[in-house]
Amino acid sequence: DRPPAVIVDAGANIxxxxxxxxALWPQARIxxxxxxxxxxxxxxxxVGGLPGVTVVQAAITARDGVIGLHTDGLDPSGFHVRxxxxxxxxxxxxCMRTLMQRHGLDRIDLLKxxxxxxxxxxxxxxxxxxxxxxxxxxxxxxxxxRPGCGHAFFQAAAxxxxxxxxxxxxxxxxxx
Length: 176
Description:
This protein is an alpha/beta fold. It is 24% helix and 32% strand. The chain has helices at residues 16-24, 37-47, 96-102, 119-124, 149-157, and strands at 6-10, 29-33, 53-56, 59-60, 65-71, 79-82, 91-94, 108-113, 134-140, 162-167, 170-175. The strands form two sheets. The protein has a seven-stranded mixed beta sheet with strand order 3-2-1-8-9-11-10, with helices on one face. Strands 4-7-5-6 form a four-stranded mixed beta sheet. A hairpin with a 7-residue loop joins β5 and β6. It is globular and about 50 Å long.
């Protein structure tokens, strides 16, 4: 109904969705978040210089801290968060409330989430108040390898009335 002014692209990978969002809504402020160092380097190259785009190297999780990443098989784009191993450096992890506070966001018009199964814990967390500040969530659910992701998301989204569009693995939920 109106163009998004604030977009968070969580699980931005190398920035293709961020580029698309910027092309569709050039005036939007976009926070692109990616944990993987190699993908983050490409994200910075691809979108780092665009006006109104901020890149953040972090994983979006249920609580702040440091996490490890692993990938299944040979798929370099399918990173999953895990507990940090002893002696491992890891990557920063931010909860949504911290991300919003650090970037001065009092609302998010479009939250795109592709966080490879971490959505289960994100939406099972005690603090879901940040969801009241999000108009539309476009989320890729990862129940195919992390059962319970969809259940956690729909339980959390039901806190306020929303309309839903389902496109295979992608669900778009907009507050009404």
